[in-house]
Design goal:
single chain, about 375 residues, alpha/beta, two-stranded antiparallel sheet, 12 strands, about 40% helix, globular, binds 3-isopropylmalic acid, binds magnesium ion
Length: about 375
């Protein structure tokens, strides 16, 4: 057996827009854990987007596809931007994010929502509403209306055009994502809220039946509730602290996670993990990415908030690298940096100093040194 067999393979793909800028900072954080904490991993950087397209005719060139195929975890930056006009839609689609989610069967998308008291001024919600907010939205990511067939735009005999998509879920697609939710809830406060539209949609009727059946069969120790999606949207704004784990379908999860993001102060703060099926060795392929996207309006300026990407590294430490203590350490360091007043433009208070992406990276690295030092003192 070679020494590298216990090494996790990480593909680092900054991509487009602000992706490379924020990923450069989370890469520094990964390096810190490799060097200072001896986390066994091999990192491979690969290009994605317009630049490789111009060179190879593919947004996802062969060597990037190979790095991602071989990786245990992919650290993904962002894709898209105004320059996408230079890439024909077909070429875009071939290597696009949706096709990657599908290719690796990354069906469980975890989007944690935490209200950091240091950022309560940046949130449009009142401080009293934000108190104790700490929940995870698990969004089904490879099925539902995003992928259902038939789909298209057709011209009718009367000259009208008709667009159509298909919302669909199978038993196993519902059960596997619900299982992820129940298992996660067992490691947290033991509550799952399943969100659907079972008063209108058959897919939701099935969703509710299957979630309930799985709960009865295997997870009766977890507290299960159900909400209609319209009510869930209202509850997220009214009293977000009531939630622990929320599980829902692809489109509802897309919408509710942007809504919930406002509790954390800025979309720039939100990390995510997209998990594939568990293999016989108990491992699952994963893609970690900040939720914010490519933000073309600020791309290249070096001012983007890297914390969404850095907190995605914390999720990687916990879920792929099996280093829960290191994940805690990194989350504590981010909290420390924020408490010390480190702010990028998106979370800055009026008149307050605004750090560049690199300076925020510096702040997290120096907080990591401090937090690791404090932990050693305590031990
Ligand atoms: C997200 C995004 C994507 C989605 C877009 C960019 C296709 O909004 O990851 O939430 O809808 O899934
Ligand atoms: Mg979205």
């Amino acid at each position: 057996m070679s020494a590298s067999t216990n090494m996790s393979r990480i593909a680092v793909v900054g991509g487009e827009g602000i992706g490379p800028e924020v990923t450069a900072q989370s890469r520094r954080v990964l390096d810190w854990f490799a060097v200072r904490r001896g986390v066994p991993m091999v990192m491979r950087e690969a290009q994605y987007g317009l630049i490789p397209y111009l060179a190879t005719g593919k947004v996802l060139p062969e060597d990037t596809a190979q790095a991602m195929d071989e990786a245990d975890a992919i650290l993904w930056g962002a894709t898209g931007g105004p320059e996408t006009r230079e890439v024909p839609a077909e070429a875009r689609k071939a290597g696009g994010l949706l096709s990657l989610r599908s290719k690796y069967d990354l069906y469980a998308n975890l989007r944690p929502i935490r209200a950091n008291p240091a950022l309560s001024e940046s949130s449009p919600l009142k401080a009293r509403v934000l108190k104790g907010v700490d929940f995870v939205i698990i969004r089904e990511l490879t099925s539902g209306i995003y992928f259902g067939e038939p789909r298209g735009i057709e011209t009718l005999a009367n000259g009208q055009r008709r667009g159509f998509n298909t919302e669909q879920y199978t038993t196993s697609q519902i059960r596997r994502v619900a299982r992820t939710a129940f298992e996660l809830a067992r490691t947290r406060r033991g509550k799952v809220c399943s969100v659907d539209k079972a008063n209108v949609l058959e897919t939701s009727v099935l969703w509710r039946e299957e979630v309930t059946a799985l709960h009865t069969e295997e997870f009766a120790d977890v507290e299960l509730s159900h909400l209609y999606v319209d009510n869930a949207a209202m509850q997220i704004v009214r009293e977000p602290s009531q939630f622990d784990v929320m599980v829902t379908g692809n489109m509802f999860g897309d919408i509710l996670s942007d809504c919930a993001a406002m509790a954390s102060g800025s979309l720039g703060m939100l990390p995510s993990a997209s998990l594939g099926p568990v293999d016989p060795f108990g491992r699952r392929k994963a893609l970690y990415e900040p939720v914010h996207g490519s933000a073309p309006d600020i791309a290249g300026k070096g001012i983007a908030n890297p914390l969404g990407s850095i907190l995605s590294v914390a999720m990687m430490l916990r879920l792929t690298l099996d280093r829960p203590d290191d994940a805690d350490l990194l989350e504590k360091a981010v909290d420390r940096a924020l408490t010390n007043g480190a702010r990028t433009a998106d979370i800055a208070e009026a008149g307050g100093r605004r750090l560049s992406s690199t300076e925020m990276g510096d702040a997290v690295l120096s907080a990591l040194d401090q937090v690791a030092h404090d932990a050693r003192e305590k031990a």
